[in-house]
């Protein structure tokens, strides 16, 4: 499922980045950036974090205490 980032004009000036999933649904909206260069740096940072970032469950009802499931565990959060 290939998604994409879109750079848009932010309300009141500056820029925002929207992240879309493969079906075209917005799944994330960035903070406001003052320049396109800063927005592009934010996309780069997001890609780096998403590639290796851990999942930390801070919800009220936690699945388990392990922040990252083992590869052989179910990750569907039932």
Task: Describe this protein with a few key phrases.
Double Stranded RNA Binding Domain; three-stranded antiparallel beta sheet; single chain; alpha+beta; 22% helix; 78 residues; 21% strand
Q: Kindly identify the CATH topology of one domain.
A: Double Stranded RNA Binding Domain
- Using DSSP, what is the number of strands? 3
The termini sit apart by 22 Å
Report the major sheet.
3 strands, antiparallel
A few lines on this structure:
By secondary structure, this protein is an alpha+beta fold. The protein has one helix at residues 36-52, and strands at 4-9, 15-20, 26-29. Helix content is 22%, strand content 21%.
Descriptive notes:
This protein is an alpha+beta fold. The protein has a domain of 49 residues: YegP-like (Double Stranded RNA Binding Domain, 2-Layer Sandwich), CATH 3.30.160. A hairpin with a 5-residue loop joins strand 1 and strand 2. The mean pLDDT is 86.
């Amino acid at each position: 499922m290939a998604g994409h980032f879109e750079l848009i004009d932010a309300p009141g000036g500056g820029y925002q980045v929207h992240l879309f999933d493969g079906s075209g649904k917005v799944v994330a909206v960035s903070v406001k950036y003052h320049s396109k260069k800063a927005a592009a740096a934010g996309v780069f940072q997001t890609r780096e974090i998403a590639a290796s970032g851990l999942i930390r469950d801070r919800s009220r009802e936690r699945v388990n205490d392990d922040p990252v499931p083992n590869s052989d565990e179910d990750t569907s959060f039932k």
